Amino acid sequence: MKKVVKKTTTEKHVTEKTFEKAMVSIAKSFARTEDRFDRIEKNFDRVFGELKNIREDNHDFKNRMLVTEITTLKHDQKIENMLSRIEKLEAKIK
Q1: Helix (H) or strand (E) holding 86
Q2: Taking the model in full, what pTM does it have?
Q3: Residue 5 carries which DSSP code?
Q4: Radius of gyration of the chain from Cα atoms?
Q5: Residue 10's Cα: distance from chain center in Å?
Q6: Would you give per-residue pLDDT tens digits along the chain (94 residues)?
Q7: CA distance 76 to 88
Q8: How far apart are CA 26 and CA 24, in angstroms?
């Protein structure tokens, strides 16, 4: 005697109401995802804005330091010139 395996299949029919509920759920999910992306985009905009400000501040600082360094070098040269002139005058006096 052969054993006969009975296949029990339960077919599920999708009704229009069930389909509409599923679509509404999917639409809400997409809306939540879009809201999250909007928040992330706003945060990125803030972060990139801050990075831009930091970069500009750094650039301004470098420029100010360069001007200060040049001014310091010029003053140092003037001091050295004056010291050499003083040494020459002292040498003439002796």
Answers
A1: helix 16-93
A2: 0.53
A3: P
A4: 41
A5: 54
A6: 566 656 555 656 778 888 899 999 999 999 999 999 999 999 999 999 999 999 999 999 999 999 999 999 999 999 999 999 999 999 988 7
A7: 18
A8: 5
